[in-house]
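Researcher: Here's the sequence for the chain we discussed earlier.
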Amino acid sequence: MKPAFAFCPLLLSLLAGCTLGPDFNKPDSHAPASWAALQETPAASQAQADPLEQRWWESFHDPKLSALIERASQRNLDLQIASARLLQSRALRMSIASEQTPSVDLGGGYSRARNSAEGLNDPSGNSGKSAFNLWQGDFTASWELDLWGRVRRQVEAADAVVEVAENDRRGVLLSLLAETAGNYIQLRAVQSNLVVTRENLEVSRHSLRLSQMRLRDGVATALDVAQASAQVASIEARLPTLEERQAQLINALGLLLAEPPRSLQAELLEPAAMPTPQQRFAIGVPSELAERRPDILQAAAQLHAATASIGVAKADFYPSIRLSGNVGFQSMQLSDFGSWDSRRFAIGPQLSLPIFEGGRLRGVLKLREAQQQEAALRYQQVVLRAWHEIDDVLRLYNASQLRRDLLEEAVRQNRIALQTAQQQYVEGAVDFLNVLSVQGALLASQEQWVESSAAVSQALVGLYKSLGGGWQPFSAPLQTAAQG
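Model: Thanks. This is the structure I predict for it:
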């Protein structure tokens, strides 16, 4: 008999190590060897396959932008909501993991009762003719033997769900950084357009005064004055729209920082230079993308959770064994409570074996397998979309730079043309319509150049977002906040 008893612990240890269902293997992201866009004709600001700059907003060398991003990362309400969801997932994981350890309870109670004379036995021995006291206290322990790895797979799935929540928060943070930088760049672009419009307004007012002087001298007509006045009114009419857009963007930044309306006007209303990219910037290598982009990491974690859930579904087909024990005291007199004669105990295993479930267990298993297939396809879709997004943004960045440089030349030539037209008008070589036409062309090219310059910076922000850069510097506060 001794060899048989010695074999039992070994058998139990082997069964405890059995885990049903497929093991998760991280899928291949099929990353290309290099970025195809880097092989194209480089623009003025060139991307390099160097390690990605984590605090990419500092490459714009704009202290105000850096300060706004830091404040947004601390105060944004969407980010705080994502942090709360992360705390919930970690608490749920803690609850699920508790099934791996025995549960121990201590209880006690007192009751004054009277049983029926015609019903069950009366513990008082008085056949239900009088009430009795009942004192009891119990120490109870139970533990499920995880023979088939059901609980281990549940914990594995819960860990993956926590990872999903972590990357959801990282995705919110990544979008927050890009949105803050994007709104700030748009704000500076609008303010640059305000400066351009006001400068052109002064030029058009000068032209109006010139035409009025020439009318008094008899060398111009009322038509020239009317056209000059219309030009002044037309340019001045642009200001309210630009000022309203400026206020909108300041409020948008305030909302990202969880500030009330108009709270940032004092620090942002003063125009400043638009953030521009440096000549060289790093974007990393394609193989690192799957370790940076939160959506790819999240899709992989969802696939992991779906894979582990298959093991849980398979374990439900097998018997479950729970060891339980109860030790305590029970007496009808308080003076007897705790005495040796008032002791009681119960100990033994409980076996549960599914016999007939009407296809429920098989249906759940098929559901989990189908969910895993969906998660695997979704991972492929997320990765493929990421490659397309990065390739498109790199092309956009190069094209935006070329357009900006061409518009810069157009602005320079239009300035020369306006000076020439004004001189020729004074000399009587051309009529005032030529001056108005050239000035309109200059204003349009200046506005387009401002917009194209903003588009370059916006494209770079979009590139950093698509590369998954920016959340890493805030990873330590993320862990602290989530654990607190």
